[in-house]
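Holo prediction — flavin-adenine dinucleotide.
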Amino acid sequence: MPVRSQLEITSCEATSDPHVKILRFRNLGLKDFEPGQWLSLKQTIGEQELVRSYSLLTKDADAICIDLVDGGLMSSMLFDTQPGTRLDFAGPFGAFRLPKPVPRELLLVGYYTGISPIHCLLEDLAAKDIACSVQVATVGPPGIWPMDRELKALSQASTTIQYHRFDWNELTPFESFLDEALTKQPFAMIAGRTAFVKSVQKRLKHCGYTRNQFAMERFG
Ligand SMILES: Cc1cc2nc3c(=O)[nH]c(=O)nc-3n(C[C@H](O)[C@H](O)[C@H](O)COP(=O)(O)OP(=O)(O)OC[C@H]3O[C@@H](n4cnc5c(N)ncnc54)[C@H](O)[C@@H]3O)c2cc1C
């Protein structure tokens, strides 16, 4: 059940990508969160009341991953947030969740900070030791994929998680990976910028996928 409450920022961490930061926070009221869901953050900047959505990054619902969008009002404000700041939120929201029971074959794809809900899902799956085979793909700027170290560690600690990284400037290898992965008809979950998510959706449909065989989260 969504609630309205506040969260208190505990740290604002730089990453190897100068456009991405991790905001960690103390949750002051969020309940009944399911991995893959998002919060709606509300902030007044000048005369303007902004409301924006951010996917939860961790299974404990205590962090978000922010992409500094060019000219972006909320993302710039979040980038400069200091520990101790309280932010209003509503949530959790969204249907970007694993089906129950969890399918035996999963394909999880994150484009840039779209890896945030994917990381959350994967962390949860690993903690619960759910028996399923997971192909995880990240697409982003090579060498600085968001959450790369954490995703590598999760896959190295597991015999069932396979982690793949792709350069967003050269998508042919990703397309080949996708075609190969889809031969096993995994349940597919794709998150990130709209154009990318739509292109994968088109591929899924081409391969005969119906709406209940995949989930999407479009970041704008
Ligand atoms: C369900 C959902 C989950 C999301 N989760 C995350 C998340 O985990 N991390 C995250 O960083 N963002 C996430 N977003 C995007 C986020 O809600 C904001 O849209 C983003 O932070 C930009 O807001 P802004 O106020 O900074 O930019 P605005 O002031 O709204 O826009 C400034 C300019 O940037 C363009 N723009 C808006 N959003 C994006 C974008 N995502 N990428 C590129 N250009 C954009 C606009 O068209 C406009 O031209 C999510 C969006 C949705 C709908």
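READOUT: The first strand starts at residue 3 and ends at 14.
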